[in-house]
Amino acid sequence: MRFQFAFLIAAAGIVAAGCNSGSQASADNTSGPKTTVKHLEKLGIKDVVAGKGETVGPGDEVWVRYTGKLADGTVFDSNEKKPETFHVTVGMGSVIKGWDQGLVGMKLGGKRHLEIPYSLGYADHDMGKIKPYSDLFFDVELVDMLKAKDADVVSASDVKEGTGREAKKGDTVSVEYEAKANGAVQETTKDLGKPLSFKIGADQTNVRGFDLALVGMKVGGERTVRVPPGLTMTLQNEKLRANVVTYSVHLVSIK
After folding, report:
1. Phi, psi for 97 (deg, rounded to 5)
2. Last residue of a domain, one of 148, 172, 204
3. Residues 161, 56 within the same domain
4. Domain span at residue 188?
5. Residues 39 and 119 grouped into a single domain
6. Contacts with 72 (C-beta within 8 Å, 6 or more apart), sequence order
7. Within its chain, how far is the Cα of 49 from the centroid?
8. Where are the beta strands (DSSP E) in the chain?
9. Three-state SS at 119
10. Which of 28, 93, 154, 242 has the most CB atoms less than 10 A away?
């Protein structure tokens, strides 16, 4: 069983039995496993790399790479070598409580080590490789994040100004662009073999707000446009719908 699937079913109540803040298992612990093995008493958080910028809070969306281990060091899942990052809306109950709590406070580019007691994981449930009463250990890297307040906001910043008059609503523009998500180039106008042309304000790009983000650009100018998931229906690549997409745009012409 892939652990990513286990994360998804966490919201269905699997972690409900593990709602305590933490516990230590022993032979006389009537509410936990009958074992003399000591377990984590509380959630452990250690920032290995601090990261930069705003901090993650409840309701924010994050894209992470992770490796999960058991107490004996056995790796039960990892997406480190997979092209896709793992997407979580923090604090919404879609993942185990140890993640909902443990991701709060991370910053972009940050790396964090989490030590999660079984009470904040899967409690007494058998998850295949993850046996009942298993403490879990994760190394997590925050690849991208989207603050809840920016979920419907297309942001833009100039890299190079360009020359001539500024593009305005109603103009037909031609652009070259490169789209990145998950830290890699996902699509580019080189795939089309020519610049992409559209009318600003006519919603012709299938990315809501993308065209308006080019208002004020000049020919030869370069701009970075950041589009949250939900607004990206796709220019060419449907995979972009699941991620924050950063477009590097070069304005070729204005008509």
Report:
1. -60, -35
2. 148
3. no
4. 152-254
5. yes
6. none
7. 17
8. 44-49, 52-55, 61-69, 75-78, 86-89, 107-108, 111-116, 136-146, 155-160, 172-181, 184-188, 196-199, 222-227, 245-254
9. helix
10. 154
